Amino acid sequence: MRSKTGKHDTRAAQGRGPSPAAPLIQRNRHVLYNALDPRKGLIRLVRIGRRENDPESAFFSLEEHPIDKAPEYMAISYMWGPNTEGGDIELDGHAVHVRQNLYNLIQNVLTRRVIGNSEMVRPRGLPNDVHHFWVDTLCINQNDLGERSHQVQMMGHIYRSARSVFVWLGPEDDDSDYVFDMHDRVRNPKFTQDYEHGRFAKALLALFRREYWYRAWIRQEILNAQMDDVTINCGDRSLKLGLLADLCSDGSWGAELNRALGASPVADLVHRDGWAEKLDRLLQLYGEGRCSDIRDRVYSLLSLASDQEVVSEVLRVDYTQPTSLLFWQLICYFTKLYDWAGAIAAARGMKHILEIDDQMTRSIRNWIMIQKCIGTVPCIDWIREFLGLAREARRIQARKGASPKTASQKLQVQVRKAKTISCYLQPHMKR
């Protein structure tokens, strides 16, 4: 639902009016992160404001809120970037190191918005009445895998509930300011006479080739928001996502640039075509997004899947489990959609997404047989056992100076376990 100002109002959509006194959970300031109870639907927000004793600097403070009763906030969509550089910010009296891209955003954009003195260019694209923002690096305790799992599970809800989504492409580069300064003249009949066509096209292409657009998480972050609530920001310039869509669909850039724009992930995002798809189709289309954790290729698409009822039965974000177990859960998902042959084909078609090795791929048929015979939950336990046996066998074989007798005894135990499982499954294999 939208308010009279045209903004997306999640509280109004849920039958609540905007409340300036949103509930604030009391937290222990002696530690940076207090544990979040996943049953209460809590999220952290960073509040930013001007210091009373130093109006030329900003402060940052963490707050905990139930997501459905949180104050209006801005969700940040950005690329982490390399961990080689960066800087420290002060958060509730704690020095927190952040990577360079986020540091640039906080110091050069968010802080300038709060200070806003006459000597600084006031950044555009930031709502003046929003004093809270959500950014994964600061709002999730990245060292707590349990918290990271349940907070990432909520990310679709977090971006849907945000007042706005602030897309940060990074500092100005490759003539990007030229694109942002010229976009409002695209539909002017004199447009081709008013600008250097080659320069504009080159700058636009460079903007759309930025690494940000190829991130695995970009689709969840942008598509869970309303298009009018998404602002693209680069340096101190900003552009509504809808206007970016106009640039993509203009069609007057020449064959080479039109092909490049059509092949860019930007085209899918701005036109929002084909997103009401089941998870298996989303994985086929977008399962090779760039990410630092290979499991995020699956996790980043969960909230967009149209078959949520099926997905939620077998797949949840869990950073404590190995990639091989996530692949097994995908197999369980495929068996709910297809017959045996279809599930085997789908699983083999997905092995490259999670970079599953050939040895594990050869076992897909057996895994699917096990799932069909004894059900999803027991199978998760069985596959943990299989993976444990395989790891132990590799350790024994790789261990230098290990006693052959000891290795032989351990391997015999594993063989007996495997035979026991095989005997249990043998009657089912004849069907």
UniProtKB/TrEMBL annotation:
<protein>
    <recommendedName>
        <fullName>Heterokaryon incompatibility domain-containing protein</fullName>
    </recommendedName>
</protein>
<feature type="compositionally biased region" description="Basic and acidic residues">
    <location>
        <begin position="1"/>
        <end position="11"/>
    </location>
</feature>
<dbReference type="Pfam" id="PF06985">
    <property type="entry name" value="HET"/>
</dbReference>
<dbReference type="InterPro" id="IPR010730">
    <property type="entry name" value="HET"/>
</dbReference>
<dbReference type="InterPro" id="IPR052895">
    <property type="entry name" value="HetReg/Transcr_Mod"/>
</dbReference>
<feature type="domain" description="Heterokaryon incompatibility">
    <location>
        <begin position="73"/>
        <end position="221"/>
    </location>
</feature>
<feature type="region of interest" description="Disordered">
    <location>
        <begin position="1"/>
        <end position="23"/>
    </location>
</feature>
